[in-house]
Amino acid sequence: MSLWSDVMERADKAKLALISDRNAGERQFSALLAQSPNDGMIYFKRGEAYEALGERTLAKTDFQRAMAMFPMSNWKARAREAIDRVGC
């Protein structure tokens, strides 16, 4: 498994955890960010979790961070769409 796919898988698991158990999910995201603080996908996935919880301001902040960190234009566009979707 590549580093990128490992981070993606762990971020997806943290997203599900955050939605079902906020404290556990936030701990998982904190651990991921401690290991990879400049990985936009971690912020993007956390933003999706916050969006699912109705935490639009937190979601927007994470989507903005993700967009700034993503090197690929298609992911920047997905982050921009998410920012627009959550509003605030």
What is the gist of this entry?
With 88 residues, the protein is mainly alpha-helical. The protein contains five helices and no strands.
Question: What key phrases describe this protein's structure?
Answer:
0% strand; globular; Serine Threonine Protein Phosphatase 5, Tetratricopeptide repeat; 88 residues; mainly alpha
Could you characterize the architecture of this molecule?
- Helices cover 83% and strands 0% of the residues.
- With 88 residues, the chain is mainly alpha-helical.
- The protein has one domain (3-86): Tetratricopeptide repeat domain (Serine Threonine Protein Phosphatase 5, Tetratricopeptide repeat, Alpha Horseshoe).
- α1 packs parallel to α3 (40-52), α3 runs antiparallel to α4 (56-69) and α4 runs antiparallel to α5 (73-86).
